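Its record is set out here:
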Amino acid sequence: MSAPLLAAQGLAFTHPGGRRPVFEGLDVAMHAGRVLTILGPNGVGKSTLLRCLAGLARPSTGTALFEGTSLQVLNDAQRARRIAFMAQSAVEAFSFTVTDIVLTGRAAHLTLFDRPRAADRESAARALQRLGIAHLAHRPMQALSGGEQQMVRMARALAQNSPVLLLDEPTAHLDLANQRQVLDTVRSLAAEGFAVGMSSHDPSHALACGGDVLVLGHTRAVAGPADEVITPALLREAYGLPIDILRTPLGRDVAVPDFGMPH
């Protein structure tokens, strides 16, 4: 396998004033053409890890590198041309249209006083079309549902056209059909040569995307190919409840948690 586009070794992060690190000793490698899914229960630092890998948070120890260059020596625009980051949620202070929001993903390709060009508008339109939300283009962002806003934030990351995409719970708030749309997009981006990292609470998403997985637990982290790492034993250790891996009649593996039965 070729050298990773984005890598980190011995990564640790402690919040200011915190007594214990959120995580420590993490090794991460993201390769062109592969998906990395980060799994784990609440509170283990999935979002913080993605922010460290995006250069938006400074790790306590370790360094994130893009093609061997530390992200900390790059300015905001330089990092954004290399890595697109989609936050889990955001509050839009102004009632910009969806197109305006997605166009902000092109900011790294413009100078301070540039206006979006035709090519930038085409990139924004393609991102909306790819996610099946072109019909929202002229709607105010604040008028959308939480799930629709989540899709718009992903479109903004796609419009950035960076070789690495880091998506923090891109399927949060989405119905099943839109979850499938996001997973289809993640798979197709990897097939086109992008390195895609995403966090999720659903191990089935990692199984559906293939590639690599990093399971963050409260006591240890395990990384490797998804079909090797995701086992009932490891999932039970990480999440604290039984989770079976079942194969559907179509030959797809899915993770099925034991949520109990109605009385």
The mean pLDDT is 93. The longest strand covers residues 6-13. The longest helix spans residues 176-191. Residues 97 and 140 are 4 Å apart (CA to CA).
